[in-house]
Amino acid sequence: MEILIYPAKILRNKSKKVKNISDSQLKDLASELKRLMVEKDGLGLAAPQIGHSIRLIAINTKKGDQIFFNPKIYWRSFFRKESAEEGCLSLPDIFGTVKRHKIVWVSYFDLQGKKRKLKAAGLLARVFQHEIDHLNGKLFIDKMTKLTKGQDLLDKLLKNAK
Ligand code: CO
Prior knowledge:
Elements: H1 24-39, E1 44-46, E2 56-61, E3 64-76, E4 81-88, E5 91-101, E6 103-109, E7 115-121, H2 122-135, H3 140-143, E8 146-149, H4 151-161
Antiparallel strand pairs: 1-2, 2-3, 3-6, 4-5, 5-8, 6-7
Bound molecules: cobalt (II) ion.
């Protein structure tokens, strides 16, 4: 499987909720997503980036590379925000500054189908926000306050997107 590059249309879709986590094909897809994230040295990767409009993401956490089904931010530090540089495997060599909530609480289902929640702060909170945005058809270029690298590349991609 390959990582899709913007302006691949699927990157703009709203992804559907995962219904049957015990499904073996779904488990295979999840491990492929994780494998690709590791191979490409990403902090996170979302299913739409490998061609599937489903609510599934992989994130490189302190506890290792993890899979999250139906991740949902149910609390955010509304006033505490932080700006930092972001990139995306679907927008190679393009970087920009994005303002994100500093702390988020996320609910999700794990590989066993068990509902869990976690608190993420700083970079991890940023990665969750970035990946969950992918599930809603949003990219960091929609939110960035400043482009820091790759203006020529982005101009070319945006021209292709029209
Ligand atoms: Co991305």
